[in-house]
Amino acid sequence: MPEISVANEFDLGASPFADNSGIEKTYTVGDTFSWQKGRHSLKFGMEYKHHDLNETFNLYTRGQIFYLGFSGDPFADFLGGELDTAGLTIMGSGVNNRDVRAQDWSGFINDDWRVTDRLTFTLGLRYEFFGPFTEADGRFIGFDPSRLTTVAIPGGGGVAVTGGFVQASNASNPLPGVPEVQPSLVDPDKNNFAPRFGFAWRPRSDDRLVVRGGYGVYYDRANSRLLNNQILDFPYYTLAQAFLTPISTPFVQVPQPSAFPLLFNNASIFPFGGPPAILSRAPSLLYPYSVQEVSANGIYPDLHDFRTPYIQQFTFGIQNEFAHNWLLDLSYVGSAGRKEYRLVDQNQAVIQSALGPVGPYYPGLSSLAVQGFGLHTMQSSSNSSYNSLQASLTKRFSRGLQFLASYTWSHSLDDYSGDASGTSDVTVVPGNQAPGQLNNYATSDFDRRNRFVFSGIYEMPKFYKGNSGFARQAINGWEVSSVWAWQSGTPFSVVTNDTAFVQARADYVPGCNPVLSGSVESRVGEYFNVSCFKAATADAAGGFGNTGRNILQGPDQKNIDISLIKFFPITERTKLEFRSEFFNAFNNVSFANPVAPNTDYAVLASPHVGKVLQTSTGPRVIQFALKLNF
Questions:
Q1: What does the pLDDT read at residue 353?
Q2: Cis peptide before 435 (omega within 30 of 0)
């Protein structure tokens, strides 16, 4: 069964990405040498890693059908209301496996220098060389916009792409007419030097006051999941798209996997010398043609901007034991991420056509906005920052009581926060995604401005000191523990639509305040003022919405867990423990953001826009346990 998607409403069926397997082997050799020299404690080390990833993805081999609302209502289309035609269908075929390899080298030197009995410095330097990934048979393909060439398709049918693709130079069976570049497609990043510095200082002769601080640079190897994108990439694979096909025969007749990679000099498939491919399909009343132009699609590394991401972390804090068994900790903690990954749309849909908006290189390149279906490059041009004030109060165990109370005020900003569904490392962010037009730097999707957590244990006194064994067992030996958590809500955006064609943010209605007052319970039907937003029209002038990313904040969350514990001594070293645990003890309702499923944005085109449809925590759960300690 193919997956069925009704735009802005629901999906049916298994994910087209579900049929996959992979074996990843990592071989590591390393050693560390320690040397104590006076007040210096030195460490040296190096490490070598060999990565080998064998992966198989059968992508969209069962296909996917989208009902987009050509009749005015996507659900009506799903019921067959638009002349029994599907809006958009996708069928996959091609080379479904890769054998990916990489080698890493790293080394470090670190010195813990005890300058005095009250001052210690930590100085270090680490070097990381993350060897770029290559494929055993050279089946890597790239797209270089600087090499893009096109020819006009006769009859005003858009353009075909005759240049722009490049291939790995170690290809066992090179594609004719496609220029070769290095086996990894992208240059290795050789300047990954990571300094570290830290200090700990006791201003007074006692141990009650300590000042600490530090700074460090940390590089992050590209996740091998990013290479799954190569299996999507044309011409080794195609996600053949067709519009307005009959529901009974909805898919393009794609070549068998053995026919891939498709060769651009094959005139029977590429009559214009490059994509689109011309493949067979079933005609319909709304599209009376038996051939389909199949555009090139994929996610390709940016050949000119693909570096190693890194993060700078810095902290400064004071710890003060202001009284016996009491510790106060005040700290500033921050970070700055650089060269992080994000997607750029190389053929963003800005031109209106009979089938919807298309890009300037359509049908040679796909215009779909969704990653993998369109033509995107992945570049290391995203930034992030995090700043926080963290305070904690610790009561060490004494007189039967211990607890930790902590509060964090923080603000995280970035260009891209990751995939809300958790299934991919890179996804499209709604808005203008054309090269040089990305404007997504805003509060992070996961930002929580305030967070307070209290956790504690209280061992009740032995109230009964008499000789009755029953009374002693019943009254003494009780313990209570609890965890309280309160945190502010996460932000979300408001978008015009969430379709395969265009993902545009909404436009503001001038002079309107979208924030509504009242409790969350009173606003579940309309959490924010929906009338303050209107649909944006995608066009060449940049009509992808004038609202920013993550401009509204979702509901706060709170939760209290309580445990009541009774100990029954049996012998001096053996006791029976009975626990009663109450999760979400007071049955507090914490509402989720009013967003579409598996996203972090509200969709104006959805019938549920502005509505809170689910909670972020479950109801009260009571659990009992009996344990023998010996």
A1: 62
A2: no
